[in-house]
Amino acid sequence: MADPEIKSYEPHHESQSAAVTESRPVRITLTTVTLVFLGIFLLLPLIIVFKEAFAKGVGAYFQSLGDADTRSAIRLTLLVAAISVPLNLVFGLSAAWAIAKFEFKGKAFLTTLIDLPFSVSPVISGLVYVLLFGAQGLLGEWLNAHGIQILFAVPGIVLATVFVTFPFVARELIPLMQEQGNGDEEAALSLGANGWQAFWYVTLPNIKWGLLYGVLLCNARAMGEFGAVSVVSGHIRGLTNTMPLHVEILYNEYNAVGAFAVASLLAGLALVTLVLKTLLEMRYGPEIAATRGH
Amino acid sequence: MEVRVVNVRKEFERFPALHDVSLDIKSGELIALLGPSGSGKTTLLRLIAGLERPTKGAIFFGEEDASQKSIQERNVGFVFQHYALFRHMTVADNIGFGLKVRHGAARPRAQEIRRRALELLDLVQLSGLEKRYPAQLSGGQRQRVALARAMAIEPKVLLLDEPFGALDAQVRRELRRWLREIHDRTGHTTVFVTHDQEEALELADRVVVMSQGRIEQVGTADDIYDTPNSPFVYSFIGESSSLPVKVENGEVWIADRPIGLEAPHAPTGEAVLYFRPHDVDLLDGCSGCIAGTVAASRRVAGTRRVELEIGGERQRVEIELPIDHPAAQKSRVAFRPRRWKLFPTA
After folding, report:
1. Cα angle A11, A13, A15; round to 5
2. CB proximity B80 to A under 8 Å
3. Cβ B72–A205 below 8 Å, yes or no?
4. Nearest of B236, B183, B180 to residue B203 by alpha carbon
5. How close does chain B come to A200, measured CA to CA in Å?
6. Which residue from B70, B84, B152 is facing A187, i.e. has the nearest CB?
7. Which of A129, B68, B169, B290 has the fewest CB atoms within 10 Å, measured from its CB?
8. Burial of A156 (0-12, 13-18, 19+ CB in 10 A)
């Protein structure tokens, strides 16, 4: 019974694979549509950014980057990323660990909460902090009385950025850790390792590519975040302007070269992220493929 | 190391996985926990290891109460069902892991760890593979590495969870023999979990048969097979046939006829008669026997299985006949179990 079935299966299989291959004109059309779309919406803007940035020559480009306010914006963006990315690395790791390795009540709810920053508009995220820490806000009076400035200062920008970029690390790690289960950790413990050794020698190597990937995305977003940061920053030049905010200000002042020069840095960051991501995927493809949540 | 499990109960979220289980494991013994899935055998193994804590009861390693000790303190070698080898470490690093994570003076020098790893690799007959990664090994090889890794910490007890579960039949049989050899050579007290009775009966000194969170019977392969102490063990181990019967005046009856089996100590009343299909005497005439109409007959390897319908209720039982036995051609067959057991119907 089994034999004829197998025999009849193989030609069927071949005809099926022929059936899913589109005819030549269709293939060409699909490819063209995709390429045109990518060209118009991705490649062209990228080219324009660099073209505009260098519109008045290399000298003007570097001169506008050397501007004090611009340098301050770059420093602030780097500072915010340097604080919020490590924080979210730790938060994301803890959240993923809790969700993947333990059973507890409200786990589904926690998983939904982690996705919240993705589903809420960044502007709303920023407004929440205004309502919380603002002069008329819930904690505003108390903070004011104690001389603590959160809104329109670096702490507010960091808080908003941490909130918006929280899901990246956690969402990379949760499916990966769930798939890997507890087996390796139990093995390490049974061999005499303590909790820290089990984490360091076994868990971390198992998740390092997913972790790196999450950190990369988290960093890109932390440096590029506009909405939430715009609400809490107060746009004080040289003080609370991050790079994306600074781009907007320069552009509104008709300083195209300045705006696009800063934009080119952000675009460069995106490109570097992409290249790193691609390199990681090429080198550790199968490992990373299993970790991809989106 | 002798291991005693004393009145252990384990609940998961109030759902009992083990009810009041007690078990004595002798030093140097190779013991099998055998049962269907959900019988609690893996839970018992994990309790002994310290991967779970008992809800009630205690576990002793020798004279010492190990119940409250962590898995690290218990010093057990645990081989996981899917091996749980560290995929980013070479075979040698996997085996040496347990020594590497030791602290202070207990931690051997790197060179010594490597020497021990190679020695163990030799013991499990995988010399030359020390630089491979787990992904580059076959299932059977991974199993051996997992065992070598567990033995590297010089465990008091070796615990194996379905050690051959994920392997194909040929490799299983080979590894079974090999595990027995290793056990005889190293003398570790060894407990392994299996749902494969052939594996348990062939490999273990003693077999612990479990069902629904309880131990049904503990004994050697012969004990378990020849004198099962419950209907569960009778039907779970080996082939068995059963018939509803009645006991009256120390005799076994089916419907209104005695079948020629004396049961002087059995309580009067309803009971179930268990016997092995191959352990029967075929009879010509029938005065005091079980007789039935042949309902089906099929050849199984070197014997013939005959399914009989017995009595007015058409109860079906199976018996085994030699392939060339004349009774196989008849439409009615009479027999009497040679070895059998009665379990009163509760």
Report:
1. 70
2. yes
3. no
4. B180
5. 11
6. B84
7. B169
8. buried
Beta strands in B69-205 (DSSP E): 76-79, 157-161, 189-194
Q: What does the pLDDT look like over B97-121, one tens digit per residue?
A: 999 999 888 899 999 999 999 999 9
A190/B86 CB distance under 8 A: no
CB contact under 8 A, A201 and B97: yes
Cβ distance A192 to B72 less than 8 Å, yes or no, reads yes
In 3D, which of A118, A98, A117 has the Cα closest to residue A106?
Answer: A98
For residue B258, the cross-strand partners are: B253
Question: Among candidates B211, B249, B248, which has minimal Cα distance to B230?
Answer: B211
The model's pTM = 0.79
Can you tell me which residue has the tokens 């005497």?
B281
Polymer length in residues for chain B: 346
Calpha distance A60→A258 (Å, rounded): 8
Whose tokens are 């390792």? That residue is A193
In total, chain A counts a number of residues equal to 294
Going by C-beta distance under 8 Å and a sequence separation of 6 or more, which residues neighbour residue B85?
A187, B94, B134, B142, B145, B146, B149
For A90, the enclosing helix (H) or strand (E) is: helix A68-101
CB contact under 8 A, A187 and B153: no
Query: pLDDT: is A135 or B56 the higher one?
Result: B56
The phi, psi pair for B278, rounded to 5°, reads -90, -10
Q: Taking CA atoms, what residue in B is nearest to A195?
A: B72
B121, two tokens: 């690799």
Interface predicted TM-score (ipTM) of this complex, two decimals: 0.83
Residue B71, CA distances (Å) to A203, B40, B59, B93 in order: 18, 19, 13, 21
